Amino acid sequence: MMMEVKNLSYKYGPLKALDDVSFSLPKGKVIGLLGPNGSGKSTLCLCLAGMLDRKGSSGEIKLAEQDLGSFAPEILARKMAVVFQDNHFSFDYTAYEIVLMGRSPYLRPLQPEGPEDHRIAEKAIRDCDCYALKDRPVKSLSGGERQRVVLARALAQATPVLLLDEPTNHLDLKHQKQILSLIRELAQASNVLSLVVLHDLNLAGQFCDYLMLLDQGRLVKQGTPEEVLTPGNLNPVYQIEVHKISHPLTGRPQIII
Amino acid sequence: MKQTLCFMVALLCLGCGPAGKRASRLGLTVTDDLGRSVALGSFPSRIISFAPSLTEMICALGGQDRLVGVTSWCNWPPQVKQKAVVGDMMNPNFERMVSLKPHLAVMIGSRPGPLLKKFEALDIPVLCFKDETVADIRRAIEVLGLLLECPVRADSLNREMDQQLAVIKTAVDSVPREKRPKVFAELGSSPLFAAGDSSFIGQMIALAGGINVTGNIGSSYAAVNPELVVKNDPDIIIVLHPQASKKQIQQRVGWRNISAVKNGRIYPGLDQDVILRPGPRFTEGLKILYGIFYAP
Amino acid sequence: MRRDVKAWFYLLPLSLLTVLLGLASGPAGFGLLNDPQVMAIRLPRVMLGMLAGAGLASSGAALQAALGNPLAEPYLLGVSGGAAFGAALALLLGLSAGIGGALGLPLFSLAFGLLALYAVYRLSKVGFRLPAETVILSGIIVNAFFSALIMLLLALAGRQLQEMIYLLMGNLGMIFGTQSLYLLWVCAAIIILCTAYLWSQGRNLDLLSLGEQPAQSLGLPVEKLKVRILVASALMVAAVVSLAGVIGFVGLVVPHLARMIAGPKNSRLVPLSVVLGANLLVLADALARTMAPQEIPVGVITSLLGVPFFIYLLRRKKRSVL
């Protein structure tokens, strides 16, 4: 198992954001994290990224059999890349410069980027379909373009684990499909474990190997899309009546309201 | 000014005069150096002095018994240290002043300021004297003399001053301008502070027969670039603050070849109360300066 | 890269010219490069100008990156205010016989500069992040606080008043009062070491400017690094303030200028800012020295020039928002 979580709880002061969550994530799979707003998806993502205060949390998170907290930031960055929801840039780096920053966990402070680093960065930027944007200042890009650049940066980090917090939020349909296909490819070809927080149940159904459904901090269901995407599971969580149909081409479960 | 006052008093004695609220048997109106007319009910017997120079003048005229309040800087004559302290220009203690029930306050200033307005707001009659020239000193002594009912004494004090001035002037005039020493008056070392010709010390230097090397700095006092002193090469440096010793000045970077430094003619430790204060003892200050300039 | 490499080709001879201009300017007359006495007065001043300009500019660049905010500047962030208060307090307590006495003044300057920085940091922290708005607001608050304290000191000051006022206006002429120039060498050492450190952290500064969480996800020990960078900046600012008083706007304007030439990558930005800052301040001081026989504080000139530049920046920002 690449990542193991046992009895993870997290409190923001008196508020319990995560309540006794446990799961195991294997290598080479795409895991979708679902749930309505406030269910704790982002909190879980941040916990797994090691970004939240220890004092609010109880429980265990293990990455490659080692306690998450025991990793030094530089080492952790070689094992796990994170794509955040909000990306704010204060200065006018070019898209390429931003992507190249993904190589920093492998470089010492004064060491310049080498040809291999440039090769990896370029591949990442092409894979995310932003090669045309590479010399543009990142502040001038649209929300969707920026998101792809940040994803490219995470890919340039070349890590075995990817955490993505709503990476398809600002993307148009074409790019949504592109990105998620890319993540699937990474899982199959390079054994990368990706945990993707998604709002869109149908994208989750199409592209993920496993799904986890959160409701008010509790993991109410985990399993294959077939197992999780049922009205029985979704209705009480989303407080709406949904219906399940099959995707005409792939047969994967799709949800309509 | 003297004539105005006499005229007013004369008018009143004739029975005419401004019918002020506080007009009694002797309604005085005094015009001060700022052109303000101040009405006084009678000769003041409770006076607050808001400047050391004015304190000295009042005492020199024999009016120390009428002095009820002085500033924290007033130190001459020694007896005034027993008087009630009413703060100073930066930190005036108005409560204290009001509690002393003064008939009059006297202060220094060349234009109306917030302090003046405060006095007026508190209904304390206040006279504002200038202190920038020797003529200002004479006038202040005159006016104070009238207020203290001793115009004769004031006159003789002024005449004494004039005599001493004349002596020095004669001595100085005998020296051709090229032979007069160039003087740098240092008022502060960090930053380097100097005085222009229009300042009182600037005038003192000129009266004592010196040539102020920082004369044309455009204002009375200003911080100056040390290069200026090097360029103008003073023969004498007088140090009017305690922060630099003769040795420190001699060791200053770049000043080694200044005549004053080379010849060791640096004079710290001077009595600033006499040299910098535009009061009745200023001629003593002049003598000290003359002594430094011409008979070291 | 072309543009900033080109810039260096111009900058090196320009720097030489600036130094010569600085040495040649002064109320004793233009030129006089062969007069050892005049040079003995001007040289330390020009050196201090270069050091102060370099220190303030690199401090500004580092603060802007570390806080992810192009408006960060030691002056606006209250560090200068704290350092100035420390220096003024040392003056009032007589801990230095004029500038250049004991180490009391620089130490006080440093202590209060760091305190101010810490206060801004704590006040503006929101969870993990240091959002731009709260940083600026906290900076204003801390600045206001120390300004009030400084005014209190001014009210209490007796004969130290003149010295304090010139300290607050930023004046390179204060170096004249030092009896030995050892403080200048110490200041130089601090600024050179801290700038070298910041330059070596170029990539880390780039990462920090992305925000605390992205920087951490890219392997930075964010808290540790931020603290080190902020301390290095504050050290430089305190060193400058203790020798030259409060010189505003250099730390804000110079990195912006450098960014317009070389782009935001800090490995290029830091050295460029350093050289630009040194040149600008020496020129500003040369101007200050020739304008009038009186000492015009160089802080006045930098502020007067800084404000129009700021307005220009603001208008550019407004246009890009449209």
Main features:
heterotrimer; A: 257 residues; Rossmann fold; four-stranded antiparallel β-sheet; 12 strands; globular; C: 322 residues; mainly alpha; ABC transporter involved in vitamin B12 uptake, BtuC; 0% strand
Summarize this structure briefly.
With 257 residues, chain A is of the alpha/beta class.
Description of the molecule:
The complex is a heterotrimer of chains A (257), B (296) and C (322). Chain A is 33% helix and 27% strand. With 257 residues, chain A is an alpha/beta fold. Chain A has two domains: 1-64 and 160-230, Rossmann fold (3-Layer(aba) Sandwich), CATH 3.40.50.300; 91-157, no CATH class. In chain A, the strands form three sheets. A six-stranded mixed β-sheet of chain A has the order 6-7-8-3-9-10, sandwiched between helices. In chain A, helix 4 packs across helix 5. The radius of gyration of chain A is 18 Å and the shape is globular. With 296 residues, chain B is an alpha/beta fold. Chain B folds into two domains: 2-159, Rossmann fold; 175-294, Nitrogenase molybdenum iron protein domain (Rossmann fold, 3-Layer(aba) Sandwich). Chain B is built from twelve helices and 14 strands. Chain B has helices at 2-13, 52-60, 94-99, 114-121, 134-147, 151-173, 200-207, 226-232, 246-250, 259-262, 272-275, 282-294; strands at residues 28-31, 37-40, 47-49, 67-70, 84-85, 104-108, 126-129, 182-186, 188-189, 192-195, 211-212, 221-223, 236-239, 266-267. In chain B, the strands form four sheets. Chain B has a five-stranded parallel β-sheet, with helices on both faces. A four-stranded parallel β-sheet of chain B has the order 11-8-13-14. Chain B is elongated, with a radius of gyration of 21 Å. Residues 10-25 of chain B have low confidence and may be disordered. With 322 residues, chain C is an all-alpha fold. Chain C has one domain (2-9, 34-321): ABC transporter involved in vitamin B12 uptake, BtuC (Orthogonal Bundle). Chain C contains 13 helices and no strands. Chain C has helices at 2-24, 36-66, 79-92, 104-124, 132-156, 161-169, 182-200, 202-208, 212-217, 222-244, 250-262, 266-291, 298-321. The longest helix of chain C is centred in the N-terminal third of the chain and has 31 residues, at 36-66. The model of chain C has no long low-confidence stretch (mean pLDDT 85). Chains in contact: A-C, B-C. The interface between B and C is medium-sized, with 34 and 32 residues.
